[in-house]
Amino acid sequence: MLKDYFEFQNPVKICAGYKALDNIGVELAELGGKRAMIISDKGVEGAGLLKTVLKAFDETEITVAAVFTDVPSDSSYDTVRETAEIYRAKNCDSLVAVGGGSVIDTAKGANILASLGTDDLAQYAGAGTIKRTLNPFIVVPTTSGTGSEATLVAVIADKKKNQKSLFLSKYLMPNTAIIDPRMTLSLPPIITAATAMDALTHSIEAFTCLGKNPLSDAYATSSIKLIAPNILRVIKNPNDKEGRYNLAVASTMAGVAFSNSMVGLVHTLGHSVGAVCHVHHGIAMNVFLPIVLEYNLPKVSNYVGELLLPLAGADAYSSTAINDRPVKTIDFIRNLKDELYSAVGLPRTLGETGKVSKDKFAEIAKTAIGDASITYNPVEMDYSDALALLEKAF
Ligand SMILES: [Fe+2]
């Protein structure tokens, strides 16, 4: 179908490669940073990754003026405010996020407060509410999944409302993303699997949602082609530098894709089970992905069928009749889920997560109806549809 109009934007400078991190001081100085605040979490610190980052700043003109490692796994308004307070108290002028989605999104939120001189984060929720450039901001991802290093999105939990707030602005895009596979080598296999399924979902939803466009399609399909063969390869051999590098680059590409097309119902449901039952985001993506693709088939079976090529390769694609490709795509994803379950125990259903009980379905469904990402799904969902999907996912 001919699109009336689309926009595509990726202003993030991407520095990728083994030891890419060694140039971080030069990159931050180029942005005008002199006093950096590093934002991270205890897991990253415990894995020794912060040492690598701090060492990279040695003998550069940058002063690391503050290091904050108390970001929880679910970023919240309170953590963002705390981070911004330290930033101000230590006279920082730039931010370096070292971590996964929660750390990066906390840094995005803190950059809003620090740059705009406010403590009221809620007024910047939604789209287009930030009106000017924020302070210099570099991201060093330590997982290969969120893609947040290349997106205009931040998801931050508003714990008072038991909801995840979405922040959308081109000014939230980091200036630079440094993709160094040394930062993901120690990622535990189950987290590797969960975050890779998040990246895969970003690309699949980018390719099938209403905001898709030819440029986001190019990033989405290229990243799927890299993710599909590398998930199990890396899980079987966690020290595989090339496999880690492929997943890391693919995850950033998936971020570029969905930042320019948005996501859909897998994320709607994932945000909701995350907010209500604290299911890990990547695990929720793994649970819902094939179920939502089936739900969306009436509107986008052709797009789902096309995904068989980057997922399964040219031979499987060409030997499958056109009409069979959509179902084969979904079968491929179900088989991948089974293999990940066998390899690392990645939960395939809501029941297997051990965190969701059916008496929570009403609250999850209600939360899902209010989630912004539902707008871009090709098939609409009402409250009773949400309940049926949750039942199927259990
Ligand atoms: Fe995601």
Topology:
Elements: E1 13-16, H1 24-30, E2 35-39, H2 42-46, H3 49-57, E3 63-68, H4 77-89, E4 94-99, H5 101-116, E5 126-127, E6 137-141, E7 153-158, E8 163-168, E9 176-179, H6 189-208, H7 214-236, H8 241-259, H9 265-277, H10 281-306, H11 308-312, H12 314-318, H13 325-344, H14 350-353, H15 361-369, H16 383-393
Parallel strand pairs: 1-9, 2-3, 2-4, 4-6, 5-8, 6-9
Antiparallel strand pairs: 7-8
Helix pairs in contact: 4-5, 6-7, 6-8, 6-10, 7-8, 9-10, 9-15, 10-13, 15-16
The structure holds fe (ii) ion.
The site of fe (ii) ion has 6 residues, from helix 6 and helix 10.
Bound molecules: fe (ii) ion
Write the CATH architecture name of the largest domain: Up-down Bundle
- Please state the average pLDDT score: 95
| Rg for CA atoms | 20 Å
What is the overall number of helices? 16
Structural domain count: 2
Percentage of helical residues?
Answer: 40-55%
Global shape: globular
What is the CA-CA span between the terminal residues? 35 Å
What is the strand tally? 9
The major β-sheet equals: 6 strands, parallel
Beta fraction: 5-15%
CATH class of the largest domain: Mainly Alpha
Derived structural class: alpha/beta
Q: Return the string of H and E elements.
A: EHEHHEHEHEEEEEHHHHHHHHHHH
Q: What is the fold-level CATH name, i.e. the topology of the largest domain? A: Dehydroquinate synthase-like, alpha domain
CATH superfamily of the largest domain: Dehydroquinate synthase-like - alpha domain
